[in-house]
Amino acid sequence: MWQIQSKTASACAVLVMAVVACCVIAKAVHYFTIPVQYKGPPHPRSDLAPYPGPGQDNLFWFVQISDMHLTSVPNVNKATRVRDFRIFCTDYLKIIQPTLVLATGDLTDGAPNSSENIEDWLMYHKVLQEAKLPYSMIWLDVRGNHDNFNVPSAEHTNNLFRQYSVLGAKGDQSFLHELQLPFGTYSFIYAEALPHIGLKRPFNFFGILDDLDLHRIQALTDRSLATPSNHTIFFGHYPTNVILAPSKFHTILSNGIAYLCGHLHDLDTKRGVNEMYALQRYNSLELELADWRKHRKYRIMAFDHDLLSFTDVQFGQWPIVLITNPKAARFLAPAHEPVGKIRHSSHIRFLVFSLDQISYANVEIDGRALGMAEAVDGGPLFVMPWKPELYGNGLHRISVTVRDSADRVGVASQQFSLNGSRPNQPFVQASIIMMNAVFFFVAVIMGLECCCVLPLLFVRRYTDRSSLGTRRFVYCDVYFHLLIGYSPIQGASAYPLLTGLLLLAHTTDVFFCLLIIAVYPLIGPWFLGDVLENTHGIVTLYGVYVKDTFIGDKFPMYFFAHDLIEFHIPLTLFCILHLSRAHHRLRSKQGHHNGDNPTWSGRRVADVVRVIISLFLLKVALARALQTSWSMSHWYGWLALLISPKYGWTCLVGAYVGIRCIYIGAFGGHMISRVYHPNDSRDG
């Protein structure tokens, strides 16, 4: 009867947890994928001429490039970055002929010593000089975190950006560039979020904005709105999700149609996360650009009758096609642009850039060919008449296929709408851009800490020998019955991992070692090291103390989450397996004396498998500990290894735990018998 009730309660608990999980997932998917609906008044110029037609009026385009990481380090792969960047500046820009170029940070790499390298900067400066860009082409380059390695202040001699960049000292702080054209003014506002003290890597990943920084950006925005500008475009190195700033920052960004950034390198994973774009909840676009360093990407953006369109281009890709009218429905920003002009337009419009003359430009809508587009004054603008009233409802797809005289083919395809319909945003890309990185790291760390610490604490609290048969033990047994449908305490002998967990909770020295290395990084300093050249600092989970200043970079949280996954959890599983092995060796000996002994071969195979798995887990844990300890000492000096509770000392603790459990697993069955007797009966 008790077993039936416990299974029913267990099923109900699982059902409730499943329903809650489904609700949370559904809410998250809805939040990130369903674009916010604009409920304000239509743009004042939506129904005012001029409209997109057959001429080149009211059109200009510009380019963004990010994360070049130019380096003088002798390496074939790294050398191609410079070679290709030189080709981009010398050849590509002369073909594209943008009005303006935005270089959004990490111009140089700062490798291998996590410090500004004058050879890297000379290389960047030389490429731009040799490119001989037209005087009319505006180049706005700004710093990224790699351009701020080991820079104690903007005025310090280590700040080589001031000497070798195009903007120089102007790029050290937020600024406003007003691009004045015959058909209006376009304001480009740089939101400078670099920490005022540039630390060595890796704990300089987050951008930081204080009240003074926000005040400056707000003043620049007010100037832009007072001009007035046709559009305001914000740009910077960091995506907003890795900028530590008051919520007012988002309010400021809501005054612009888009925020352009880089920094994330498609998350720098094997396959990468492409096209990290999102329409933020404050009705502005955030468009992260993949890096030049590895992916060789750059972006072409165009304002056509104040409608913003863009395409991210792979280096070497020709021809390049950018459809400007009708604009892609996914990136409509009715709070900032006159989307009604699409309904009044007379022509489909797109830009084509190629090394050779375009010989073929075909347009299709919803799979139906409309005909050939024609170049306006030889290009790069191509136009074709259309009847927008035929596409008034829902989403439609326009596709453009072009071919040049060298038989290269370029294709562009996008969904558009005339009634405000838009497709959902891709969940992964949108969630990365929209989710606060600090909140994500905190949630992950809390979940991992609960997995690492709570089971050990719970088992140790409720399974000590003095509590067997008492009310406290019975409550624990009932809890397990309700949660998972059976009592692992009574059935521990049948479940080796649970047996190992019980034994680990009562192997006092190992238990407290694991508990300390899991909890200490949350509350104590990690290490003391040269976070700046010849300047010591203290690193904690929440930031870095240096020069009487606290820099709240939260990248240590990323490292701690990895340490829990790759060090603490494997080390805990290793301990569980080896202590379980000791328990089963003890049972085998006692079973042999009682005449109830399993076959030698089966026992031996299980023992060998358990040893192989546990040693692999120990290898993973110690490899992570040694690798991170070496990295910290490489970046921050040997002091970061010697005075290092989080890394150097933790390596020693991990080695002690490993040796201790190996000894118990091999020779210490008598130690286990003092903690947990395999023949204890708990049925009563």
Describe the protein in words:
The protein is of the alpha+beta class. Helix 9 runs parallel beside helix 13. The protein contains 17 helices and 25 strands. A six-stranded mixed β-sheet has the order 4-5-7-9-11-10, with helices on one face. A five-stranded mixed β-sheet has the order 3-2-1-12-13, with no helix packed on it. Strands 14-15-19-18 form a four-stranded antiparallel β-sheet, with no helix packed on it. Strand 16 (358-365) and strand 17 (368-372) form a beta hairpin. The model is unreliable at 465-494, 592-596 and 678-684 (pLDDT under 50).
Quick recap:
By secondary structure, the protein is an alpha+beta fold.
Set out the fold topology:
Layout: H1 2-33, E1 59-65, H2 76-96, E2 100-104, H3 118-131, E3 138-142, H4 161-164, E4 175-181, E5 184-190, E6 207-208, H5 211-226, E7 231-235, E8 243-244, H6 248-253, E9 258-261, E10 277-279, E11 285-288, E12 297-304, E13 307-314, E14 320-325, H7 341-344, E15 347-353, E16 358-365, E17 368-372, E18 374-375, E19 381-385, E20 395-404, E21 409-417, H8 427-434, H9 437-462, H10 471-484, H11 496-506, H12 508-523, E22 527-532, E23 535-540, E24 543-546, E25 549-551, H13 555-593, H14 600-636, H15 639-642, H16 648-667, H17 669-675
Parallel strand pairs: 1-2, 2-3, 5-7, 6-8, 7-9, 9-11
Antiparallel strand pairs: 1-12, 4-5, 10-11, 12-13, 14-15, 15-19, 16-17, 16-20, 18-19, 20-21, 22-23, 23-24, 24-25
Helix pairs in contact: 1-10, 2-3, 9-11, 9-12, 9-13, 11-13, 12-13, 12-16, 13-14, 13-16, 13-17, 14-16, 16-17
